Amino acid sequence: MSGIFITFEGPDGVGKTSVLKQLMPRLQQAARRPILETREPGGSKIAEEIRQVLLDVQNTQMDHRTEALLFAAARRQHLVEVVNPALAADKIVVSDRFVDSSVAYQGAGHEVGEQAVYDLNLFATQGLTPDLTILLDAPVAVGLKRIQQFRQDQNDRLDQETLAFHERVRGAYLHLQAQYPQRIIKIDATKPLAEVVTNCFITIQQHWPQDFTEEIV
Length: 217
Prior knowledge:
This is Thymidylate kinase. This protein is an alpha/beta fold. The protein has helices spanning 16-30, 45-55, 64-88, 99-109, 114-125, 140-150, 163-179, 193-207, and strands at 4-9, 35-39, 92-96, 132-137, 184-188. It has a single domain (4-207), classed as P-loop containing nucleotide triphosphate hydrolases (Rossmann fold).
């Protein structure tokens, strides 16, 4: 495929939604080819329906392996319907989460096994790997404080997990970044929002200077 696949990752509360809300208009203005924003779980009709099951706060009895399988199923449908066609059409795809999330949340957080979850998603994605992953990172205490301050009315099932769960998730992300430093670029999400957004833009532009014009300051 000739497109560019960029993913955004990070533990809960690092501000991915806020960053992407400000970053995407800048990327769209600078991009020299069509750019598509999407998210996981979700991004297509069937995948969005699976998302509702996954994040429903009432589904407290969901088995962790069931959860991992549902994330992989939603991911597969999202790829088939949205991501793969866009990449084949030479577009830039920016996705809020991808396989790294499952490895961190289900593999490490819920202790299903990082390798087991990776292998499951290898089947689901047929080996598709992002060209670049931006990992927004912040200490767990910072992320959870932000959730309490700004997302009390939007908490999902995973937001209700224990502190130890969130520590395992962050640890897995940092381990992935150490394993794949060329693909996964860590950005300090404790900085002011405007600075984080600019750092993300610069990272992407530097990777593909031919596809993104430099910003006029």
